[in-house]
UniProtKB/TrEMBL annotation:
<dbReference type="InterPro" id="IPR027256">
    <property type="entry name" value="P-typ_ATPase_IB"/>
</dbReference>
<keyword id="KW-1003">Cell membrane</keyword>
<keyword id="KW-0597">Phosphoprotein</keyword>
<dbReference type="GO" id="GO:0005524">
    <property type="term" value="F:ATP binding"/>
</dbReference>
<dbReference type="GO" id="GO:0016887">
    <property type="term" value="F:ATP hydrolysis activity"/>
</dbReference>
<keyword id="KW-0460">Magnesium</keyword>
<feature type="transmembrane region" description="Helical">
    <location>
        <begin position="271"/>
        <end position="289"/>
    </location>
</feature>
<dbReference type="InterPro" id="IPR023214">
    <property type="entry name" value="HAD_sf"/>
</dbReference>
<dbReference type="Pfam" id="PF00122">
    <property type="entry name" value="E1-E2_ATPase"/>
</dbReference>
<dbReference type="InterPro" id="IPR059000">
    <property type="entry name" value="ATPase_P-type_domA"/>
</dbReference>
<dbReference type="InterPro" id="IPR018303">
    <property type="entry name" value="ATPase_P-typ_P_site"/>
</dbReference>
<feature type="transmembrane region" description="Helical">
    <location>
        <begin position="243"/>
        <end position="265"/>
    </location>
</feature>
<dbReference type="InterPro" id="IPR023298">
    <property type="entry name" value="ATPase_P-typ_TM_dom_sf"/>
</dbReference>
<keyword id="KW-1133">Transmembrane helix</keyword>
<dbReference type="InterPro" id="IPR021993">
    <property type="entry name" value="ATPase-cat-bd"/>
</dbReference>
<protein>
    <recommendedName>
        <fullName>P-type Cu(2+) transporter</fullName>
        <ecNumber>7.2.2.9</ecNumber>
    </recommendedName>
</protein>
<keyword id="KW-0406">Ion transport</keyword>
Length: 792
């Protein structure tokens, strides 16, 4: 007799052995497709689909909406909004629901790390986000999201508004659970007074047992509903063969509840219904306060995305969703509105408020060809902007992504703490078992509640929260200061820096270079010399090159080719004539000129000097204060520059710089870094292409916000506002972060070291144990939140 497929109702071929356990029975399937779909439905807890369906599914096609919706994220049009491409990999920031501790993060990372096509996944327990990158040739995003769902967590591409909704939904659920636990605790505690304090000493056994049954009625909703999050977290951990923070807590509550049920039914032994209700109430209260505290830190960078307006106005007058804007679209931005996308101004003039990036309150003037960024606020002028980047690749999205990356990068102390926490849970369970055996032999009546106290009091939640919450808060504060982190080691290394290596042009100086004097060696007119120089310099991206831009004449002088010799200058050809512009040693080495050091840029034709240019670049107002502050901190300063003119000495003397290396090539700069003693931890600050190798080679590097893209890509951190005083604030914040992490770890370890022997000796009551454990976590989180304060 032929069988029908339980999933699609088509005949099952003879000899096939595709089966899935559904609703307590083994069901036959007709093919691997139906088997796979049915297994996915079951593993995601959606078996009720089969109970309530009114017709069989199409062959390996119909999936419940909860799973089917994940496939939508594979569509290219939908992915444009949140997917970034990095080398050969795609990258997305995910929102996670259900992550409660470091064990959850470890579980997700461990399970997905072995999945096909995965390049990297990092989970941040503080922000409830994950950074996922994968090879689109090997796997789909929906497949990876399904893997996370199968672990019992919900995951979706991060959107600030949706995460806000999810946060409020979770908080509302916690309030419901907390309310029920609180009400039940009050009722059960009143009954416990009658049962244990013998207020009614003449109660007979029958009425006493009646009170126990009433306590059972009140405690049961707490166990079935209020405590559910703890069981779910514990089950996820056990399912993945690991031990999370909620395992000992869940065991304690279940033991207490079922032991009390047995004592009530058999009318013998002690009941712990008040402990169960109180456990749950205080644990939920602790988690609730902890979630609110962590939310405060996580919201700072996440809320940046809310600055992007929902709608944008095209030049045609049509309004479209801002997230659908594509490269080369043109939009109109009226005064007072947020810009909908990154782009360049093609018409109009205005002042833009970029304080959300730079931390600087003064608006920045913008004219034609100037870049503008999504989320910034237009001043009092009308602008027409050409879109240059989609929402996923915008500066504001990259800031959120880089902050998440930095927060997910764990210092060594955090990795050790997470490892200790995982093994500590196993240790708690073993110690609790031995505690019960000991007290069962010596004092049987107290053995059970002493074991419960050990299980609850020593849960290492605070230990797991000690570092990630501090890092989340400090990176969020750095973002407010206009410092964008690109590497996770920044905060650690910043504390150790004792040598600052800094470029001159565009770093210590404004980079607003002006041409002050031209010395001609031939009969070529000054105007023509400036035109030739400006066309050659148009092939470079450096503050010196921008000094010549105003002399460009598109109707004259066209080079056949121009080559950028990084660190030296530019070399171009017009017919058979070779032109060079740059350092004297590169462009006009043999030219003799008195006071030649007063000229920074030289122009030559076929090896013969044509002109020399004198430039002026004002020193930044904050540079002097920066150097003085660094000296006060005991940090030596080296000015490492490719400039060999007299202005180098002038700047060094004005700023009292310890060491000057001038006329350095990119390789020479890197060689200098390598020559520093191992005891010196270097911080390199630069802005040009020629600084890129040094930025990459330093222990820690910072690129100026006005610098080149190559410099920014090589740096560990980007200073968006070009305000050098932020470096001192960043170091102070790093030092405070290190101090707070140490305080958190000392508190977490000290608390467990003290509470464990006291609990084992029976000196800690169960309700004290749960208050202590919850309070310990709240103290750690609250201590970390001090990093968000402007004055610390």
């Amino acid at each position: 007799m032929s069988k029908d497929c339980y999933h699609c109702s088509e005949p099952v071929p003879s000899g096939s052995h595709f089966q899935v356990d559904i609703l307590g029975e083994t069901r036959d399937m007709c093919c691997p497709g139906c088997e796979s779909v049915a297994q996915t439905i079951v593993e995601n807890g959606l078996s009720s689909y089969y109970q309530y369906r009114t017709a069989p599914a199409d062959k390996a096609d119909l999936i419940p909406e909860q799973l089917k919706a994940l496939a939508h994220y594979d569509h290219s049009e939908i992915q444009k909004e949140f997917i970034r491409t990095n080398d050969n990999y795609k990258e997305v920031t995910l929102s996670l629901d259900g992550v409660s501790c470091a064990a959850c993060a470890w579980l997700i990372e461990k399970q997905l790390a072995n999945a096909q096509g995965i390049h990297q996944i990092k989970v941040n327990t503080s922000t409830h986000r994950a950074l996922l990158s994968w090879n689109p040739e090997e796997t789909k995003l929906s497949t990876l999201l399904t893997l996370i769902h199968q672990l019992g967590y919900k995951a979706a591409p991060f959107e600030a508004d949706k995460q806000e909704e999810e946060y409020h939904r979770s908080m509302k659920q916690y309030l419901y659970r907390l309310g029920i636990a609180g009400l039940a605790t009050m009722q059960v505690m009143m009954l416990a007074v009658a049962l244990y304090l013998e207020v009614f000493g003449d109660l007979d056994a029958e009425f006493r047992n009646y009170l126990r049954y009433v306590s059972l009625v009140f405690a049961t909703p707490v166990m079935l509903y209020s405590a559910l999050p703890f069981y779910m977290n514990a089950w996820r951990s056990l399912k993945a063969k690991t031990l999370g923070m909620d395992v000992p807590v869940s065991i304690a509550m279940l033991f207490a509840y079922f032991a009390s049920v047995v004592a009530t039914v058999t009318e013998s032994g002690e009941v712990f219904f008040e402990s169960v209700a109180m456990f749950t109430f205080f644990l939920l209260l602790g988690r609730f306060l902890e979630m609110r505290a962590r939310r405060k830190a996580a919201a700072i960078t996440g809320n940046l995305l809310k600055l992007i307006p929902v709608m944008a106005t095209l030049t045609s007058g049509k309004k479209v969703p801002a997230r659908t804007l594509d490269v080369d679209d043109t939009v109109i931005v009226p005064p007072g509105e947020h810009l909908p996308a990154d782009g360049i101004v093609i018409a109009g003039y205005s002042a833009i408020d970029e304080s959300m990036f730079t931390g600087e309150s003064m608006p920045v003037a913008k004219k034609e060809t100037d870049p503008v960024y999504a989320g910034t606020i237009n001043g009092d002028g009308n602008l027409t902007v050409k879109v240059t980047k989609t929402k996923a690749d915008s500066l504001i999205s990259n800031i959120v992504k880089l902050q998440d990356e930095a927060q997910m990068s764990k210092p060594k102390v955090a990795e050790i703490a997470d490892l200790v926490a995982r093994y500590f849970v196993a240790g708690i369970l073993i110690i609790s078992a031995f505690t019960w055996f000991y007290w069962h032999e010596t004092k049987p009546d107290d053995a059970f509640w002493i074991m419960l106290s050990v299980l609850v009091a020593t849960c290492p939640c605070a230990l797991s929260l000690a570092t990630p919450t501090a890092i989340t808060c400090s990176t969020s504060r750095l973002a407010q200061l206009g410092l964008m982190l690109r590497r996770g080691h920044v905060l650690e290394t910043l504390c150790k820096v004792n040598r600052l290596v800094i470029d001159k042009t565009g770093t210590l100086t404004e980079g607003n270079i002006r041409l002050t004097q031209v010395h001609s060696f031939t009969d070529i007119s000054e105007k023509e010399v400036k035109t030739i120089a400006s066309e050659m310099e148009s092939f470079a991206n450096h503050p010196i090159a921008r000094a010549f831009s105003q002399y460009r004449d598109s109707t004259q002088t066209h080079f056949d080719s121009v080559k950028n010799i990084i660190g030296s200058g530019l070399q171009g050809y017009i017919g058979n004539d070779e032109w060079k512009i740059g350092h004297k040693a590169f462009a006009a080495q043999d030219c003799l000129l008195e006071n030649h050091q007063d000229y920074q840029v030289w122009l030559s034709k076929n090896g013969q000097a044509v002109a020399a240019f004198s430039l002026d670049d004002p020193i930044r107002q904050e540079s002097k204060a920066l150097i003085q502050s660094l000296h006060h901190l005991g940090i030596k300063v080296t000015m490492l520059t490719g400039d060999s003119s007299s202005s180098v000495k002038k700047v060094a003397n004005a700023l009292d710089i310890d060491e000057v290396i001038s006329g350095a090539t990119p390789q020479g700069k890197l060689d200098y870094l390598k020559s520093l003693p191992k005891s010196e931890i270097s911080l390199m600050v630069g802005d040009g292409i020629n600084d890129a190798p040094t930025l990459a080679g330093a222990h820690l590097s910072i690129a100026m916000g006005s610098g080149t893209d190559v410099a920014k890509a090589s740096a560990d951190m980007i200073l968006l506002g070009d305000n050098l005083s932020r470096l001192i604030e960043a170091r102070e914040l790093a030092m405070k972060t290190r101090k707070i992490i140490r305080e958190n770890l000392a508190w977490a370890l000290g608390y467990n070291a003290i509470i464990l022997p006291l609990a084992v000796m029976g000196l800690v009551a169960p309700y004290i144990a749960v208050v202590g454990m919850s309070g310990s976590s709240i103290i750690v989180v609250s201590n970390s939140l001090r990093l968000l304060k402007e004055n610390g």
